[in-house]
């Protein structure tokens, strides 16, 4: 078991000591080698949930077990071993960029975990290449590049640390369609070929449909669905989740209604094309 939540709740302290309970009584098991998507409307608790996964937040109640480490109010743990194994890319990349240059920012994590300057630079250059950062950007300030480039720098900074688990909070935000496709292909390759665990927070149901194997839906701080993506769209409560259907499913519903093509749950363009060729005997 890579990550386990045991009856976890978390409250943010507000004005005049008032508290807002962001997640409530969460029980969740995540195994190594999974590709999981977490979705739900804004304010449902997604970001709060994943920030417990690398010890950025500590549960108000309950326990979070991350490999051999246990986080709770009663049990304090060293944070660095957890963050070496679980990398978190924030929803807003500017929150995790702070060095003078892009290269130094990507090098920071490996150096912080004890690598020499040369070793950290080697890993940083490899990570920069993986996410498609051009060499001429590496000596620029991370605050003088585009939002999409900032996101790539933030992703590279996590990849350079070579974590076992990648937690990605809206990783394609700010990227153009081609950039989004490229980084998602990278994440899927890390999952498929390198056995990395990928935990993806996203509002993009097309991305979730194409890449995730398991989907968790959150609403009002609670998990309201946890299962295979194939089971999500036929769930009796789907209409209450405030989620859009992937375009491939909308297309299959349209073809079924308009020209009586048998409906089938399909999750990417290649599957749709193959299926239509089969049923039309082309």
Structure description:
By secondary structure, this protein is of the alpha/beta class. It has a domain at 245-282. The chain contains 10 helices and 10 strands. The strands form 2 sheets. The protein has a 6-stranded mixed sheet with strand order 6-7-8-3-9-10. Strands 2-1-4-5 form a 4-stranded antiparallel sheet, with no helix packed on it. It is globular, with a radius of gyration of 20 Å. The chain starts with a strand and ends with a helix.
Residues in β-strands, percent: 15-25%
* Average of the residue pLDDT scores: 92
Report the radius of gyration as a whole number of Å. 20 Å
For the biggest β-sheet, the strand order reads 6-7-8-3-9-10
Sheet with most strands: 6 strands, mixed
**Continuous helix count:** 10
Derived structural class: alpha/beta
Overall geometric form: globular
The string of secondary-structure elements, in order, is: EEEHEEHEHHHEHEHEEHHH
**Percent helix range:** 25-40%
Q: Quote the distance from N terminus to C terminus.
A: 46 Å
């Amino acid at each position: 078991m890579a990550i386990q939540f045991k009856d976890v709740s978390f409250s943010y302290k507000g004005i005049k000591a008032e508290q807002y309970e962001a997640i409530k009584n969460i029980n969740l098991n995540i195994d190594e080698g999974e590709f999981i998507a977490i979705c739900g409307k804004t304010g449902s608790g997604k970001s709060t949930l994943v920030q417990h996964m690398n010890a950025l937040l500590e549960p108000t109640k309950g326990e979070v077990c991350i490999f051999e480490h246990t986080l709770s109010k009663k049990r304090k743990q060293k944070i660095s071993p957890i963050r070496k194994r679980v990398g978190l890319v924030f929803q807003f990349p500017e929150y995790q960029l702070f060095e003078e240059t892009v290269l130094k920012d990507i090098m920071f994590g490996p150096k912080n975990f004890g690598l020499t300057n040369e070793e950290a630079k080697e890993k940083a250059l490899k990570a920069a290449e993986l996410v498609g950062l051009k060499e001429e950007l590496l000596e620029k300030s991370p605050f003088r590049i585009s939002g999409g480039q900032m996101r790539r720098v933030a992703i590279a900074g996590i990849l350079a640390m070579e974590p076992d688990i990648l937690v990605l909070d809206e990783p394609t935000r700010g990227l153009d369609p081609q950039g989004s496709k490229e980084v998602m292909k990278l994440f899927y390759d890390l999952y498929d070929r390198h056995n990395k665990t990928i935990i993806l927070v996203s509002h993009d149901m097309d991305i979730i449909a194409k890449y995730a194997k398991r989907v968790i839906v959150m609403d009002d701080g609670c998990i309201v669905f946890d299962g295979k993506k194939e089971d999500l769209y036929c769930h009796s409560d789907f209409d209450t989740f405030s989620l859009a259907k992937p375009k491939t499913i909308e297309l299959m519903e349209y073809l079924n209604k308009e020209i009586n093509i048998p409906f089938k749950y399909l999750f990417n363009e290649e599957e749709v094309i193959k299926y239509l060729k089969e049923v039309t005997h082309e």
